[in-house]
Amino acid sequence: KPLVFSGVQPTGNLHLGNYLGAIKKFVALQETSDCIYCVVDLHSLTAQLVHADLQDQTRSITAAFLASGIDPKKHIVFNQSRVMQHAELAWIFNCVARIGWMNRMTQFKDKAGKDRENASLGLLAYPSLMAADILLYRATHVPVGEDQKQHLELTRDIAQKFNNDFSARIAELGVGVEIQVGEETVNGFFPMTEPLIGGPAARIMSLRDGSKKMSKSDPSDLSRINLTDDADTISKKIKKAKTDPDALPSEVDGLAGRPEAENLVGIYAGLADIGKEAVLGQFGGQQFSVFKPALADLAVDKLAPVAAEMRRISADHAYVDGVLRDGGERAGNLAETTMKTVRDIVGLLQG
Ligand code: AQP
């Protein structure tokens, strides 16, 4: 069975981009894979160290997972900081990865802004911790939005360099497995993890600007639909969403050069679980005055039950904390098995 790992940061309100680009995929993968879903609280310290409400945010993301249909008994749900091996493996990866690799990450450049010297070292090393999250479980697949593609490539680079640097030791200990690297098969410890990106909602854009991704940190609340928005707010935001004056095209090709129209069609497709072609089959030739109310109805229909369930679950601290504790124990056992071998490979004295 494939082993799936993914994480969401407990920073701010979850929005439709997080839901369609990541969480909905998490839910679907439960049928075919063993899944580990993590609230990555250590990651959330990289951009902003002091979070007044980190614990409640952690509960709220957990509640979003559960309300969306993730089963914490069949799979694993936990918060990252409970399993200290994440930080331990990240340290080893900090010594494997090169500073130049980190400096090239577009997320680092965006988040650090002009004053890079003043960004936290954690922000620079973010992808190293992300690689540790994934490879600690030797996960084979990672469902993420398009924005995380570069970090997933870096995860593969780190795995490959580790396998290569320690190839003799991996062979000596007999802990390697066959790993496909491009055309070649090599003996290595960490897998070449595959990103699962794609579908009509891999990159949901801001409702105010079709060239910017929908994001928690956008100062305009009108730019995003939050999972916790009520029906009126969702309708208002969709009504106010930026569009062009033309009718929708009948073919996907006709969306080229119309980023706002393409985004709304992608959102409809993601919510309805159909392709963009099917959406245009239904709405091609129609004006936004017809399409937007239909999209608003669909969004309310799909999101309102999740939001209600999320509110109910996140109020029950004892239940949510219990889920995280139990998931943390199970994840911790898996993580320790990997780390024992990694410590041996690296040559750290144990026992
Ligand atoms: N706009 C998006 N479209 C599709 N997928 C998205 N994701 C984020 N934004 C979009 C995916 O959501 C998952 C969790 O993301 P995260 O916790 O790392 O949060 P983030 O990427 O920091 O979220 P934001 O909203 O983009 O925050 P800021 O404003 O801080 O940059 C990931 O799989 C991500 O790809």
UniProtKB/TrEMBL annotation:
<feature type="binding site">
    <location>
        <begin position="9"/>
        <end position="11"/>
    </location>
    <ligand>
        <name>ATP</name>
    </ligand>
</feature>
<dbReference type="Pfam" id="PF00579">
    <property type="entry name" value="tRNA-synt_1b"/>
</dbReference>
<dbReference type="InterPro" id="IPR002305">
    <property type="entry name" value="aa-tRNA-synth_Ic"/>
</dbReference>
<feature type="short sequence motif" description="'KMSKS' region">
    <location>
        <begin position="213"/>
        <end position="217"/>
    </location>
</feature>
<dbReference type="GO" id="GO:0005829">
    <property type="term" value="C:cytosol"/>
</dbReference>
<comment type="similarity">
    <text>Belongs to the class-I aminoacyl-tRNA synthetase family.</text>
</comment>
<dbReference type="GO" id="GO:0005524">
    <property type="term" value="F:ATP binding"/>
</dbReference>
<keyword id="KW-0436">Ligase</keyword>
<keyword id="KW-0963">Cytoplasm</keyword>
<dbReference type="GO" id="GO:0004830">
    <property type="term" value="F:tryptophan-tRNA ligase activity"/>
</dbReference>
<keyword id="KW-0547">Nucleotide-binding</keyword>
<keyword id="KW-0648">Protein biosynthesis</keyword>
<comment type="function">
    <text>Catalyzes the attachment of tryptophan to tRNA(Trp).</text>
</comment>
<keyword id="KW-0030">Aminoacyl-tRNA synthetase</keyword>
<dbReference type="InterPro" id="IPR050203">
    <property type="entry name" value="Trp-tRNA_synthetase"/>
</dbReference>
<protein>
    <recommendedName>
        <fullName>Tryptophan--tRNA ligase</fullName>
        <ecNumber>6.1.1.2</ecNumber>
    </recommendedName>
</protein>
<dbReference type="InterPro" id="IPR024109">
    <property type="entry name" value="Trp-tRNA-ligase_bac-type"/>
</dbReference>
<feature type="binding site">
    <location>
        <begin position="17"/>
        <end position="18"/>
    </location>
    <ligand>
        <name>ATP</name>
    </ligand>
</feature>
<feature type="binding site">
    <location>
        <position position="204"/>
    </location>
    <ligand>
        <name>ATP</name>
    </ligand>
</feature>
<dbReference type="InterPro" id="IPR002306">
    <property type="entry name" value="Trp-tRNA-ligase"/>
</dbReference>
<dbReference type="InterPro" id="IPR014729">
    <property type="entry name" value="Rossmann-like_a/b/a_fold"/>
</dbReference>
<feature type="binding site">
    <location>
        <begin position="145"/>
        <end position="147"/>
    </location>
    <ligand>
        <name>ATP</name>
    </ligand>
</feature>
<comment type="subunit">
    <text>Homodimer.</text>
</comment>
<feature type="short sequence motif" description="'HIGH' region">
    <location>
        <begin position="10"/>
        <end position="18"/>
    </location>
</feature>
<keyword id="KW-0067">ATP-binding</keyword>
<dbReference type="GO" id="GO:0006436">
    <property type="term" value="P:tryptophanyl-tRNA aminoacylation"/>
</dbReference>
<dbReference type="InterPro" id="IPR001412">
    <property type="entry name" value="aa-tRNA-synth_I_CS"/>
</dbReference>
<feature type="binding site">
    <location>
        <position position="133"/>
    </location>
    <ligand>
        <name>L-tryptophan</name>
    </ligand>
</feature>
<feature type="binding site">
    <location>
        <begin position="213"/>
        <end position="217"/>
    </location>
    <ligand>
        <name>ATP</name>
    </ligand>
</feature>
